[in-house]
Amino acid sequence: xxxxxxxxxxxxxxxxxxxxxxxxxxxxxxxxxxxxxxxxxxxxxxxxxxxxxxxxxxxxxxxxxxxxxxxxxxxxxxxxxxxxxxxxxxxxxxxxxxxxxxxxxxxxxxxxxxxxxxxxxxxxxxxxxxxxxxxxxxxxxxxxxxxxxxxxxxxxxxxxxxxxxxxxxxxxxxxxxxxxxxxxxxxxxxxxxxxxxxxxxxxxxxxxxxxxxxxxxxxxxxxxxxxxxxxxxxxxxxxxxxxxxxxxxxxxxxxxxxxxxxxxxxxxxxxxxxxxxxxxxxxxxxxxxxxxxxxxxxxxx
Length: 301
Description:
Number of strands: 8
Order of helices and strands: EHEHEHEHEHHEHEHEHHHH
Number of helices: 12
Helix content: 40-55%
Shape: globular
Strand content: 5-15%
């Protein structure tokens, strides 16, 4: 049951080679990198994972490779699409490959609660009893879901077992979602982990984020759940400048991939077109951020 999940769920990047083709070998090294830094599970083909830039066959190949490498760790596959045929096909193939569930966000263009309800009714009629993460990310989708609307979806569709909450401001929405649930679902949060200590204080079950230093995400969660809140905040604070830098939309994803290339997790930092390419200024800024981070870590020891 995904409704019981806790811990650090990584929004995995999709590695490409220097020509923009899928780099399957780097999926293996990237998965090992995440696992070595405390990942409790994965989400693949998310927004920052560039899932929207893949063909259906590429999406199946990427998700299957992550699932195979993740061993016993749960893998959730992003299948969001306004095309329900594509959504249901990818969902079926991901579950056949061993996925633990899927993540679905409402498509752009929905304006009312009834349109929202109607869309998810159609989705679940097609995919059946597949464990689902409801993604609330209006910055990407343009669809704002109120707390009453989300609670209605949760009560109406037992397939919804997790909410990925990344509306801003997130804190009060988390509190209202937790207080209003008649059926408990897990709540995990995105936005690159920018508000993680405070969201943990509001009762989330962990981060669902893609920061280039996943040891921070898992470390903050573990320290916080052990009651070591000051230590969790200190660990978060040491990484905050780089975290902020990565919170620049797809420019931040490009920076994240470059940092992970430098850390040996992937062979290339390529973003698939259309996507940004870092300049010499960006590389110099990353040099400075990483140098400061290493100094902060050294000073703490």
